[in-house]
Design brief:
The chain is built from 18 helices and no strands. It is mainly alpha-helical. One of its GO terms (biological process) is nitrate assimilation.
Length: about 425
């Protein structure tokens, strides 16, 4: 049995703990999106059912991503000290409760509280990236992380397409819309509980086994902890970059269907389809960013990865500005696909850098950078809840902000001192 990180990514293989873990972690992350954003494509119905105002809808969008900030920090720490296998299992079981319980919401306040609870599921990303980083060798980490993250994020697009169909099927079975959206959320909650069992049963913390079986590994000296990490400008540059890319992604997942309904007069199902196309870009775009970063690194090192990330963010910002001023559906779709490509490539490029900033604290750094993505989503959410701004206005302001973050990242040197990846606690 191979107990070392893999040197290659064998996408069609399930043999060995490394590839088995790779496939289970992206599949789990994929299904988590059904719980995390399953309500988003149903919001036109929920808005009418609960009588929500634009500001209240905005608050629920913020709630869905704000709790994730704290959950990602906690999961990053738990992965370092408890291991990703137990951490993911716990997250899935705890997260399934508000997903299935949201059907009990009867007004704005109770719905908001359930959305807040559902937000913990977003921490699934940190475990996914951490676990993939552990299973693969340095030369392939960027690609492996990007493919796992991208295929998992694909769940955001599939959710926008599938949840309206589940809702329609329940209505077709004779239930009212009031009951149908509530029943629909039982589906992702049940899937999360199933994945909790599979993850605990069929994955390991490391290629060599679980943490509790590796006492010698836990004795390896770790880095200076959170104080050392928080003093590293590279961590905060990646934090801002992820706020600009993933923050926009989860914000768009939350508002896209409503934007297409309100701006272009689409039906809930049609709006969900086009919002889903945005998510479907993760099938290849995030992986493309990780592959590009690994290729650039061969010749230009970490500095090259940083420049690539800055360029991708700039192109994302420019594409978002085009989307903001789209005057018809065709222009909106074309510009959406443009900024989505660079946004998702930037996601992949970011986490091609994360494992190398301080390899013995990958969990902490993954959690901090991941939390940055959600903080970006929270701040963007305040723009979309404003009664004085249209959704187009909000997209425009965000586009300019992303361009500014791109400029900042360009001047950050990501080539600082790093430890050998083989010296990490989980190597």
């Amino acid at each position: 049995m191979n107990t070392s990180p893999l040197e290659s990514l064998r996408l069609f293989s399930f043999s060995g703990v490394q590839m088995r873990t790779f496939h289970l972690t992206w599949m789990t992350f994929f299904l988590c999106f059904f719980g995390w954003f399953g309500l988003a494509p149903l919001m036109p119905t929920i808005r009418a059912d609960l009588g929500l105002t634009k500001a209240q809808v905005g608050n629920t969008i913020i709630a869905a991503v704000s709790m994730t900030i704290f959950a990602r920090l906690l999961m990053g720490w738990l992965c370092d000290v408890w291991g990703p296998r137990k951490s993911y299992t716990l997250l899935l079981v705890v997260g399934a409760v508000p997903v299935m319980g949201v059907g009990l919401a009867h007004d704005y306040t109770s719905f908001l509280l359930f959305r807040l609870g559902i937000g913990v599921i977003g921490a699934s990303f940190v475990v996914t990236q951490y676990h993939t980083s552990v299973m693969f060798a340095p030369a392939i980490k960027g690609t492996a992380n990007a493919v796992a993250g991208g295929w998992g994020n694909l769940g955001g697009g599939v959710t926008n397409m599938v949840m309206p169909l589940i809702f329609a099927g329940i209505v077709g079975a004779g239930y009212t819309p009031h009951a149908a959206w509530r029943i629909a959320m039982v589906v992702p909650g049940t899937a999360m509980l199933l994945m909790a069992f599979l993850y605990y049963r069929f994955t390991k913390d490391t290629p060599a086994g679980n943490l509790e079986d590796l006492p010698a590994k836990k004795a390896v000296k770790k880095s200076g902890g959170f104080r050392t990490i928080s003093a590293d400008i590279r961590v905060w540059a990646l934090f801002l970059a992820y706020a600009a890319s993933f923050g926009m992604e989860i914000t768009f997942d939350g508002v896209a269907a409503l934007h297409f309904v309100d701006t272009f007069g689409l039906s809930q199902a049609s709006a969900g389809f086009w919002a889903g196309i945005f998510g479907f870009m993760n099938l290849f775009a995030r992986a493309l960013g990780g592959v590009a970063a690994d290729k650039v690194s061969v010749r230009y090192g970490m500095r090259g990865k940083g420049v690539l990330l800055a360029v991708l963010l700039l192109l994302e910002g420019l594409g978002l500005l085009l989307f903001a001023q789209a005057g018809n559906l065709t222009a909106a779709i074309v510009s959406m696909l443009t900024f989505a490509l660079f946004l998702k490539m930037a996601n992949g490029g970011n986490y091609a850098i994360v494992p190398f900033v301080n390899p013995s604290s990958v969990g902490w750094i993954s959690g901090i950078v991941g939390a940055g993505g959600n903080l970006g989503g929270v701040l963007m959410g305040f723009l979309f809840k404003s009664e004085s701004l249209t959704y187009a206005d909000a997209f425009r302001y965000i586009g300019f902000a992303i361009a500014g973050i791109a400029l900042f990242c360009f001047f950050v040197n990501f080539s600082g001192k790093t430890e050998s990846v083989e010296e990490t606690v989980l190597a």
